[in-house]
Amino acid sequence: MARFFMLGTNLLGGTAIMTGKDAEHARVLRIRPGEDIIICDGKGTDYKCRVTIADKQQVEAEVIEVVPCKAEPSVAVSVLCGLPKGSDKTDYIIQKCVEAGASEIFFFPSDRCVARPENIEKKQERWQRISEEAAKQSGRGIIPQVGWLSDYASALDLAVHKDLGLFLYETGEREGLDTVLNAHTGIHSAALITGPEGGFAAFEADLARMAGLHICSMGERILRCETAPVVAVTAVMYATGNLS
Amino acid sequence: MARFFMLGTNLLGGTAIMTGKDAEHARVLRIRPGEDIIICDGKGTDYKCRVTIADKQQVEAEVIEVVPCKAEPSVAVSVLCGLPKGSDKTDYIIQKCVEAGASEIFFFPSDRCVARPENIEKKQERWQRISEEAAKQSGRGIIPQVGWLSDYASALDLAVHKDLGLFLYETGEREGLDTVLNAHTGIHSAALITGPEGGFAAFEADLARMAGLHICSMGERILRCETAPVVAVTAVMYATGNLS
User: Fold this and answer.
1) Quick check: B91 contacting A, CB < 8 Å?
2) 0.80 cut: is pTM over it?
3) C-alpha–C-alpha distance, residues A77 and A73, integer Å
4) Is A244 in the B-facing interface, judged by CB distances under 8 Å?
5) With an 8 Å Cβ cutoff, are B99 and A70 in contact?
6) What is the ipTM of this complex?
7) B235, A230: Cβ pair inside 8 Å?
8) What is the pLDDT of residues B143-156, one digit of tens each?
9) Dihedral of CA A31/A34/A39/A44: which sign?
10) Is A167:A193 a contact under the CB 8 Å cutoff?
C-alpha cells in the first residue's frame, strides 16, 4: 500500500488532503479514487485512508482507520558519526540506518575527519530528503531527523542524555557490544558514536570514557566507517527485540 | 599492519615470497625491509612476517609468528540472495556481507528477479575481486567465495545442509528471527536466503517451508533487497557471540 507522510493538521475531521509534491507523487503512482493508502503523521501514527478524489493538484481521502505505526521500534536510536569523506558514504549511512530503525542521525567533525564540512545547510536538505525516502520505503512511522553537530563535544553531550550511550571503538580496553546491550534490554533510547575513515584519536575515546559512555567493541573485523553504524543499529534492534 | 592473502605453499620453510599483483600492491603501499606485514593463508591462519627484501618484482619476508586469524567468526554464514537488478546492489551485498562476517555468498534466479543473469562468468570474477578487497580491508582470515547458483532449488539444497537454514520473508506466518537464533546459539553453520527487489513469490516460501527452513521475520520495517542480507548476517553474528 502506498505510503505518505503528512503533518497532523491536514488530517483533522476524518478527511486527508494532499497537495504539492505528495499529490504529484500520488499521480506518478497512478493512485485512483477507491484505492487505499496510508498517510503517516510523522509522529508514529498511521492513518489508513480511502482515496475519494485524485486530480492533478490534490488528493482527497477519507480516514478509515487510525493505528500506531507497527514499524517503529521500541527504542529510539541516535546515530552520531564522524563526518566521512564523500557524499556516497553519508547518503549510505542515512539510507541504511533509517531502514534499520534509527530515530535520528547526526554527523560531526572529529580529529581525523578529512572531509570538509562545507555547504552544510545545502547538505542537510539532501540528507533529510534521503531520510524521508528511506522512511517511506521501509514503512517507518517517523522521518528521522538528519543533522549536523558543530563539534565533538555536542555529540558527547547528546549521547550522555540517552538511556545508553555507546562509543564504538576498534582498539584498547573495551566492553563487548553484546555484553553491554544484553545488560540494558529495557532501554527506551540509545546513542551510538562511530568514527570517520581514520577512526577516533585516543583523546576522543578518553573523553567519551570520562563522559560515562560505554567504549564498545564490535568484534575483530574492521568495519568501514559507513558499515559500522548500520551494524551497530542492527545490534541494538536485535538486543531490544525489534528484529522479530 | 598491511594484510595480504596468499595460498599455503609459498609460506613453507619460514619464508614468504610474494610476486605478481601482491608484490605490486606492496610497492603501492611503500612497504620496506624491516616492516611487519600479515600474510593470511586464506584458510583462517595469519602469518605475521618481517619484510627482508622488497623490490619491484618480489617481496620476501621472514615468518615471525603464526596465529589463527582472530577476525574469523565461529559460525560460517552462507548468504543466498535472489539476484538483484544492477551491479551496485550485488557489489554492495558482497562488500558489506564480507565485512559483517559472511563465509560465502551466492546469487540465484528467483521468480520475481528482473535482472538478467548474463555474462555470469565475467561477473563472478568481479564479485570475487570485491570479496577479496573487503576481506583484506576488514582483516578476514578467508576470502569468502562468491558464486552463482543456476536455480532456486540449488539455493534450498545448500541451505538445508547447514546447521540452521533461514528464509527471510516479509509476509505470512513467520517466526521471529531473534526467537529462532536464540534457540540455536551453538550452531557452526547457517544459511540465510533473501529475495530480490520484488521479494519472493508465495510458492517459493512454501517450498522453503517444505524443505524445513525457518521462515523468519526481521520486524515490520521493509528492508531493501541489498540491506536485508547485511542485517541478517549481523543478527547471526550478534546471536552467536561474534559481535563483541
Assistant:
1) no
2) yes
3) 9
4) yes
5) no
6) 0.91
7) no
8) 999 999 999 999 99
9) negative
10) yes
